[in-house]
Amino acid sequence: MDPVTIKVEGMTCAGCATAVRSAIENVPGVESAQVDLATGLATVAGDQPKTTSIIEAIMTRGYKAEAVEAVLDASGIRSQIEQTQLEHERLWRTRAIIGLSTWAPLELLHWIAASSGFDHGLLVPIIMWAGATLVLATAGWGFYKSAFAAARGGTTNMDTLISIGATTAYVYSVVVFVCHQLGLMHDEPLYFAESAGLLGLISLGHWLDSRAAAGASAAVRKLLHMQPDEAELVEADDQTRMVRTSMITPGQEVMVRPGGRVPVDGVILEGRSSIDESIITGESIPIDKEAGQEVIAGSTNTTGVLRIKSTVDGGSTTVARMARLVQQAQSSRANIQRLADKVSSVFVPAVLLIGLVTFLCWWLLGDDVPRGAVATVTVLIISCPCALGLATPMAVMVGAGEASLRGILVKSAQALEQAGSVNTVVFDKTGTLTIGSPEVTSVQPEPGHDAGEVLSLAASVENASEHPIGAAIVRAAREKGLEVAPVEDFQSVPGQGVSGLVNGRRVDVTRDPKATCKIIIDDVEAGLVTVADTPRPDSRRAVEELQRLGLDVFMLTGDRHDAAIHIAESIGLDRNNVIADATPESKLSTIKSFKGSVAMVGDGINDAAALASADLGIAMGSGTNIAIESAQLVIPGDQVTSIPQAVTLARMTLRTIKQNLFLAFVYNAAAIPVAALGLLGAHGPLIAAIAMACSDASVIGNALRLKSRLRKGRVDSV
Prior knowledge:
Alpha-Beta Plaits, alpha+beta, Calcium-transporting ATPase, cytoplasmic transduction domain A, six-stranded antiparallel β-sheet
């Protein structure tokens, strides 16, 4: 069934998105779920899951949810992203300001009162109690709500630790304060200021998270800004008026003037101009286009006035589809993230157990309940796995977003992860390493046959075929003024050839080891036709860069061996790495025979099965729809050099993910024993909050460092 889209309100961090996804995936019939924190949208796929059940599952976790029927256009997606991000940022900024602005004077008051030597009676403790209560009721409300929703669903989350830690510090301080008034526990300090401070500091960390996430998703917003919100619609009387781009439907005509952006995908009806398609293809040189040629939404019309007939509606343009794919990739999970999710699912209960053991040990073995309580609170706070939850999503958002700015579409986090770990790249030849427009180079008739006759009859049969070689034969015959007669009883065998009746004569065009095609007329060999293709200008560079990256590069083609070897040698590919005479079936078995992680690059229908079966399918953006749908990664237009760029970018992203996970795991592994042993002293809870914020900052900073390197180096110079 078609995916179900649910709008979710109340998510404030990566942990919230994980909780919502987990709730959805437990609904019967759901096969997969992707939750995009940036837009607040959840996309659910499965075997007819009930939308009401999905909404109920989300609401049991404490979030609001409703079904979304209409697909947003580019403007709607951009507005949704900006609105959601502004709400998140404003929410955490408010909580951070309340928490920190209350904590700072409380902490100052505490130190002044302690160092002055005067007896301030109840004034100072009451002020500190009031301040802490204010922070818990405002900045703490979001944490309590999330923790309670998780508990109601029978689970725990990162906010569980924060809520219990802050509450424990607060309740312990209330108990000590009451005991002070009863003449007990005179030497025990109050932790009202620390309770307020840790909520303020953690809110500050989430504010930084939300700002970093907004920066990481800037690539999507930049894409969406390329499609204009308004279009100049041409009416039936040739008058024009400005309308919302989202109102454009297929078949309507729009006018695009010099300097303007194309509002929808379409075909030029009138005019001629140079079109800058760098937003889609990554190619900065404008392309001359005229009537009959296609244009893409978001591209810039640099010179002439164009009249364009739209081929899609305003919400289904290339820009909008690209943005949805990037969002899908940014909100999906890599395999390495699944490991982190599994660790997080048991980590919080384990920390709660460690906290309990810490308190019992201090109480039973050391007879020091106050210090045990402080150590327990410190353990709960310092163990919060926020950095673990941010480690992968932040890097994936940056990697997928930066790839899109180069015209490289990464469909999922798994694809990005796979691209970073491939060790073999297998190319189709025609249309991938070559231009895909072969030409007839020679016709060799057998004795008793004329070259013109052989070419004419071959073209007549091939005219009913869609194969590029057949198109080249037809084109050559027409250029020579030869007859291309109608064909009857046409038959095609993929990978073998075509046949049919032409003017009552049986004509077979079959594969031949000596040339491209062997022409058989009435069961008698009549001649050979050789068709040659030319390599793309950047194919040699692409192969060399992939080899420099340490990858094994192969060519897998259905073309004959000699022609494949000729192309391979012209682009610097070892002839031993050429597999020719392949059928669609043999391509599939060949891909499966490779060891390690294999990427298949293709563009045609006959490559679809191989693309789908490879560890990573890479489709040319100029290829067929079925090839693009079968692939996990799509490179722009005809730029083969985008493949080594994608591999380099993916490797950098994967390296950043591993670094982030290492930082998160090492932090928790080192911090928990230190906190449990009470080595952080009486101010352990506050130190723990600062340390946790620093842990988050290290992960965020590492992801932003990746973004800076990608922006600065543009990948190919790294």
